[in-house]
Design goal:
The protein is built from one helix and six strands, in the order ββββββα. It is α+β, with helices and mostly antiparallel strands. The strands form two sheets. Strands 1, 2, 3 and 4 form a four-stranded antiparallel sheet that branches. The chain has a two-stranded antiparallel sheet with strand order 5-6.
Protein backbone atom coordinates (compact mmCIF):
# COMPACT_ATOMS: atom_id res chain seq x y z
CA UNK A 1 0.00 0.00 0.00
CA UNK A 2 1.62 3.25 -1.05
CA UNK A 3 0.97 6.42 0.90
CA UNK A 4 0.41 9.42 -1.30
CA UNK A 5 0.97 12.55 0.77
CA UNK A 6 1.21 15.84 -1.08
CA UNK A 7 3.18 18.89 -0.05
CA UNK A 8 2.10 22.24 -1.50
CA UNK A 9 3.59 25.69 -1.18
CA UNK A 10 1.80 28.59 -2.81
CA UNK A 11 1.55 32.36 -2.70
CA UNK A 12 -1.79 34.14 -2.34
CA UNK A 13 -2.67 37.32 -4.25
CA UNK A 14 -2.25 39.39 -1.06
CA UNK A 15 1.36 38.19 -0.64
CA UNK A 16 1.07 35.40 1.95
CA UNK A 17 3.15 32.26 1.42
CA UNK A 18 1.32 29.15 2.66
CA UNK A 19 2.77 25.65 3.14
CA UNK A 20 0.48 22.63 3.34
CA UNK A 21 0.99 18.90 3.80
CA UNK A 22 -1.79 16.42 3.11
CA UNK A 23 -4.37 19.24 3.09
CA UNK A 24 -3.29 20.68 6.47
CA UNK A 25 -1.18 23.70 7.33
CA UNK A 26 2.28 22.28 8.05
CA UNK A 27 5.97 23.13 7.70
CA UNK A 28 9.02 21.72 9.54
CA UNK A 29 11.39 24.20 7.88
CA UNK A 30 9.75 27.47 8.94
CA UNK A 31 6.41 29.18 9.37
CA UNK A 32 3.48 27.60 7.54
CA UNK A 33 2.00 31.05 6.91
CA UNK A 34 4.49 33.75 6.05
CA UNK A 35 3.02 37.24 5.71
CA UNK A 36 4.24 39.96 3.37
CA UNK A 37 6.21 42.94 4.70
CA UNK A 38 3.27 45.28 4.08
CA UNK A 39 0.92 43.27 6.28
CA UNK A 40 3.16 43.52 9.36
CA UNK A 41 1.82 40.42 11.05
CA UNK A 42 3.83 37.73 12.76
CA UNK A 43 4.32 34.51 10.83
CA UNK A 44 2.27 31.53 12.01
CA UNK A 45 3.71 28.11 12.79
CA UNK A 46 1.70 24.93 12.19
CA UNK A 47 2.45 21.21 12.37
CA UNK A 48 -0.14 18.85 10.89
CA UNK A 49 -2.84 21.53 11.12
CA UNK A 50 -2.20 22.48 14.77
CA UNK A 51 -1.02 26.03 15.46
CA UNK A 52 2.03 26.51 17.71
CA UNK A 53 3.89 29.48 19.10
CA UNK A 54 7.38 29.89 17.68
CA UNK A 55 8.94 28.55 20.90
CA UNK A 56 6.69 25.46 20.98
CA UNK A 57 7.33 24.87 17.27
CA UNK A 58 11.11 25.04 17.85
CA UNK A 59 10.78 22.53 20.71
CA UNK A 60 8.72 20.13 18.57
CA UNK A 61 11.20 20.52 15.72
CA UNK A 62 14.11 19.79 18.05
CA UNK A 63 12.41 16.60 19.27
CA UNK A 64 11.65 15.17 15.81
CA UNK A 65 15.14 13.78 15.12
CA UNK A 66 16.45 12.09 18.18
CA UNK A 67 18.17 8.97 19.35
CA UNK A 68 15.97 6.44 21.15
CA UNK A 69 16.62 6.40 24.91
CA UNK A 70 18.07 2.87 24.81
CA UNK A 71 20.74 4.02 22.31
CA UNK A 72 21.45 7.42 23.85
CA UNK A 73 24.66 7.41 25.90
CA UNK A 74 23.39 10.32 28.01
CA UNK A 75 20.57 8.20 29.42
CA UNK A 76 21.95 5.85 32.04
CA UNK A 77 19.86 2.99 33.31
CA UNK A 78 20.04 2.14 36.98
CA UNK A 79 19.60 -1.55 37.61
Amino acid sequence: MSENFKTRKFKTPDGKTISMFDGKLHNWEGPAIRYSEEERRKDEYYLYGIQYTKEDWLEARRDRNGVPPDKNPQVKSRF
